[in-house]
Amino acid sequence: MQTLTLTRPDDLHLHVRDGAAMGSVVNHTASQFARAIIMPNLKPPVVTTDDAIAYRERILSAVDEKYQFEPLMTLYLTDNTSISEVKKAADSECVKAIKYYPAGATTNSDQAVTDIKKTYDTLEAMMKQGLLLLVHGEVTDNNVDVFERETVFIDKVLTPLVNEFSELKIVFEHITTKSAVDFVMQAGNNIAATITPQHILLNRNDLFKGGLQPHHYCLPVLKAEENRQAVLAAAISGNPKFFLGTDSAPHSKTAKETSCGCAGIYSAHIAIELYAEAFEAAGALEKLEAFASHYGADFYGLPRNTDKLTLVKQEQTIPEKFSFGDDELVPFRANGTCAWQLKK
Ligand code: DOR
Ligand code: ZN
Predict the structure, then answer these.
(1) Residue 24 domain flag
(2) In a domain, 141, yes or no
(3) How many Å lie between the centroid of ligand 2 and the Cα of residue 5?
(4) Closest CA to 318 of 266, 264, 282
(5) Tens-digit pLDDT profile for residues 10-49
(6) Which residue segment(s) compose the domain that 299 sits in?
(7) How many domains is the chain partitioned into structurally?
(8) How far apart are CA 86 and CA 97, in angstroms?
């Protein structure tokens, strides 16, 4: 049977929510990843280092003792994030980055940044303190076509930002377009990007196949096939600017299967297996380890993990649902299969 042994990977973009819901999902991630960058878009958001420290403790208490898992925390940037908060975050052991959501761009982003220029003093301080900026790269203007919002963001917001802060480390999160790939490739070494499993496995037809598919709806929304191919090519390129970040984003079944459903795909239960499938289909399995386990750690200035994870090429069946606090969660590939599984 075919096996693949990797340095244990890190997930550089993850939502675990809070409370009982968190308890239902976090061990999926802890069973395969050594570390994960935890997104701060809770209700209310994680805006201070003290919030992040408390949230980290709650996560650790929900992780099963048999796993060695390190949550790496982020703060939620607002128009008012102070320079002293940036210093506090940088001095903490636990906060690694600050997340920039354009206000209104996605789940729980209402209190986020209304105009990035309002935060330029904060970004200056982050650059000096060596804190990373993580970017949800979509404009929120309703007059801009939803499939173009990433590309327009690059021109209107990201390019001026990168020109202004030439040494700020920026992760362009969950890239979905050829324009994002091209932007990251031509930018300096302070610019990198995360890539999700859904954006290299699916295209926008998968939103409508056989009827509306709410469990394939995430933000940035799935794009056309040529964009999927460009993002996949970046993932398997061996360019260290592109690394793994699942953006696994659980929402209850009730919140997804409704007239105004939430954005987010839950992939944590088979995250590394999905990437293995995509890399194998592209004939690039040998590129998976660096993408999943080296480049993200290197960009964040973290030591690479030393223990290993083994995958087996053996089909697994995905459950119809998981429990999710008091509710249920429909995972990616529910009732379907995945070609790989973790070695037991
Ligand atoms: O699909 C998404 N879900 N995209 C995001 O940017 C946020 C996330 C969430 O928190 O649900
Ligand atoms: Zn996210």
Answers:
(1) yes
(2) yes
(3) 27
(4) 266
(5) 999 999 999 999 999 999 999 999 999 999 999 999 999 9
(6) 10-304
(7) 1
(8) 10
